[in-house]
């Protein structure tokens, strides 16, 4: 495979040391930061909002911040995240009454836009908005929590999404989120993903003998993906 981006989900980071965790994981070779926003309504969990994204920017984080909105409704928060410095904003189509409008809000604000597909949500939502999409995010767990197991049917869905992206001729990233580990990333990459969210696989595998704590696991994820 050519592209391979590792996007650590800070959901599994130590929140009390968030700035340092982000700094360390980026210094370990991660390509971007995955920022999971949960509202205890669209998903049964509550995390953090735009002020935390802004705080990371103020701390000095310049890397791509990939905001995964698990909130309903979506539109009111888009402006907050654009102001907070988000580079990519993705949302679940079920959570927007006007998907085309939500995508336009993100793009007009200067960020990349994407749709997120739960395991049982059909890719048909892409049909009439492909020209506004910069990223397709395939959930390989039901959203709400880190540390769940990869749902194997996501592999077929990735292949389907890859075919749609290739047919579009556009530069659209195909991200996968949930249960990505060193021992399954090769198969996931072979199914067409180029951007890999990994939360527990990274933050639960800190090594004190690595210069930045996460060097070994980020290197192993990339090496396995490259074998696809
Ligand atoms: O969006 C979500 C969960 O809803 C994810 O981004 C998880 O945070 C990924 O965690 P792991 O499955 O990699 O531990
Ligand atoms: Fe996520």
Automatic annotation (TrEMBL):
Keywords assigned: Carbohydrate metabolism, Isomerase, Metal-binding
Family per similarity comment: Belongs to the ribulose-phosphate 3-epimerase family.
Lineage of origin: Bacteria, Pseudomonadati, Pseudomonadota, Gammaproteobacteria, Oceanospirillales
Enzyme Commission (EC) number: 5.1.3.1
Active site feature: 36, 177
Function per UniProt: Catalyzes the reversible epimerization of D-ribulose 5-phosphate to D-xylulose 5-phosphate.
Pathway it works in: Carbohydrate degradation
Entry superkingdom: Bacteria
Residue numbers binding substrate: 9, 68, 144-147, 177-179, 199-200
Binding site for a divalent metal cation: 34, 36, 68, 177
Family annotation (PANTHER family): RIBULOSE-5-PHOSPHATE-3-EPIMERASE (PTHR11749)
Catalytically driven reaction(s): D-ribulose 5-phosphate = D-xylulose 5-phosphate
Bound cofactor: record note: Binds 1 divalent metal cation per subunit.
UniProt xrefs under CDD domains: RPE
InterPro entries (alphabetical): Aldolase_TIM, Ribul_P_3_epim, Ribul_P_3_epim-like, RibuloseP-bd_barrel
Cofactor: Co(2+); Mn(2+); a divalent metal cation; Zn(2+)
GO molecular function annotation: D-ribulose-phosphate 3-epimerase activity
Protein name per the record: Ribulose-phosphate 3-epimerase
């Amino acid at each position: 495979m050519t592209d391979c981006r590792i996007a650590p989900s800070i959901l599994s980071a130590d929140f009390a040391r968030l700035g340092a965790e982000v700094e360390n994981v980026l210094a370990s070779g991660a390509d971007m930061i995955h920022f999971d926003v949960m509202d205890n309504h669209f998903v049964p969990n509550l995390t953090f909002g735009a002020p935390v994204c802004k705080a990371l920017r103020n701390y000095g984080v310049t890397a791509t911040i990939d905001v995964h909105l698990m909130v309903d409704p979506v539109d009111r928060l888009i402006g907050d995240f654009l102001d907070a410095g988000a580079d990519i904003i993705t949302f679940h189509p079920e959570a927007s009454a006007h998907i085309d409008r939500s995508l336009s809000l993100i793009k007009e604000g200067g960020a990349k836009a994407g749709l997120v597909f739960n395991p049982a949500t059909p890719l048909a939502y892409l049909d009439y908005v492909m020209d506004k999409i910069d990223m397709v995010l395939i959930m390989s767990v039901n959203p709400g929590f880190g540390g769940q197991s990869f749902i194997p049917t996501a592999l077929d869905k990735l292949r389907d999404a890859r075919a749609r992206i290739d047919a579009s001729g556009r530069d659209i990233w195909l991200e996968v989120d949930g249960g990505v580990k060193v021992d399954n990333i090769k198969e996931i990459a072979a199914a067409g993903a180029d951007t890999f969210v990994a939360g527990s696989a990274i933050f639960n595998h800190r090594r004190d003998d690595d210069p930045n704590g996460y060097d070994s696991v980020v290197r192993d994820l990339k090496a396995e993906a490259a074998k696809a």
